[in-house]
Design brief:
- By secondary structure, the protein is α+β, with helices and mostly antiparallel strands.
- It has a domain of 47 residues.
- It contains three helices and four strands; from the N terminus they run ββααββα.
- The strands form two sheets. The protein has a two-stranded antiparallel sheet with strand order 1-2.
- A hairpin with a 2-residue loop joins strand 3 and strand 4.
- The protein is globular, with a radius of gyration of 14 Å.
- The relative contact order is 0.17.
Length: 72
């Protein structure tokens, strides 16, 4: 799922994720990702030409930010 690419600085970078990959990772339909993008509430998305791509680190950071403290 996550391939490593060589970055401009020579370091390894993970490949960008497609909406299908992110929907599988999050367990939500692709249509939900599109709705979240439209509403501005989902993980940060990048438009490359006409294609939408996600950075895995940003998806994971968004997931971390969704944590709810049920004890409060």
């Amino acid at each position: 799922m996550q391939k490593l690419k060589s970055g401009a600085d020579g370091g390894a970078r993970r490949a960008l994720a497609t909406p299908v990959e992110v929907s599988e990772y999050l367990g939500v339909p692709v249509a939900t990702l599109y709705q979240w993008r439209h509403r501005g509430i989902g993980p940060k998305v990048h438009k490359l030409g006409r294609h939408l791509r996600y950075r895995w680190a940003e998806v994971e950071a968004w997931v971390d930010g969704q944590a709810v403290d049920l004890a409060a």
